[in-house]
Amino acid sequence: MENFLWYPLEHLPFVVIVIMIVFTVHEFAHAYSAYKFGDDTAYREGRVTLNPMVHLDIFGTILLLIAGFGWAKPVPVNASRFKHRRTMSVIVSAVGPLSNLLMAFIGMLLIYILYGTGLMQAASTGVQSALQVFFFYFVTINLLLFVFNLIPLPPLDGYRIVSEFLPLRIRYKVEQNIQWGMFLFLLFVFIPPLRAVTLDPILGLQVPLYTGINRMLSSLFGFQMVWS
């Protein structure tokens, strides 16, 4: 079974918990911001909630476990109800990835606080190991989803953001062929040579993000975290 998973089998419980948290907050951010801007579509469908079962997508979750990234159920948005359609549409699309970036920062901040206050060192070896594994995945998966969701391919948030700035004629043609975006995306995922020259370089951007946050916090706390 482990051969089919992106993550070590013994880490799977931590990964599943992290997925439930980060997907839920990401989709809640979309739904809540749309509701606040005047669109109650997601609210009427019960998406303005922190209940993970409402937001998780089975295929997207399985894909994350076996391919290293995935998605939750898209939040329905009726942009025609926004007072400032383009601006609010961009914000609603962007808050999901931004919530992942914020969670990554908070996760790394918490682990620095645990070490800086001595709470981590005071815990048992088992607790220390569990917390390190959890926060490692919490930070890295959030950074991964931040970068991944900004790729301008449907059905990702990056496409929704970019589409707001496309000429109507081009946008209409793209919308007519949007199903091919998903097909193209799956080709990039499951054909290694294509993935190596498309998705992998983009997803690699999470590394400088991680390094930047780590350096920022290390300068504040006076020591640098090194996670194996």
Descriptive notes:
This protein has 228 residues and is mainly alpha-helical. The protein has one domain. It is 70% helix and 0% strand. It contains 13 helices and no strands. It has helices spanning 12-36, 41-44, 52-55, 58-67, 85-116, 119-122, 125-149, 157-163, 168-176, 178-190, 192-197, 199-203, 206-221. The chain is globular.
SSE blueprint and pairings:
Blueprint: H1 12-36, H2 41-44, H3 52-55, H4 58-67, H5 85-116, H6 119-122, H7 125-149, H8 157-163, H9 168-176, H10 178-190, H11 192-197, H12 199-203, H13 206-221
Helix pairs in contact: 1-5, 1-7, 5-7, 5-8, 5-13, 7-13
Shape by Cα distribution: globular
User: Spans of 5+ residues with little confidence (pLDDT < 50)?
Assistant: none
How far the N terminus sits from the C terminus, by CA atoms, comes to: 24 Å
**Count, helices:** 13
- What is the number of domains? 1
Overall mean pLDDT score? Answer: 87
Which radius of gyration do the C-alpha atoms yield?
19 Å
Largest sheet: none
Order of helices and strands: HHHHHHHHHHHHH
Q: In which range does the helix fraction lie?
A: over 70%
For the secondary structure, the number of strands is 0
Task: Kindly list the characteristics that best describe this protein.
mainly alpha; 0% strand; globular; 228 residues
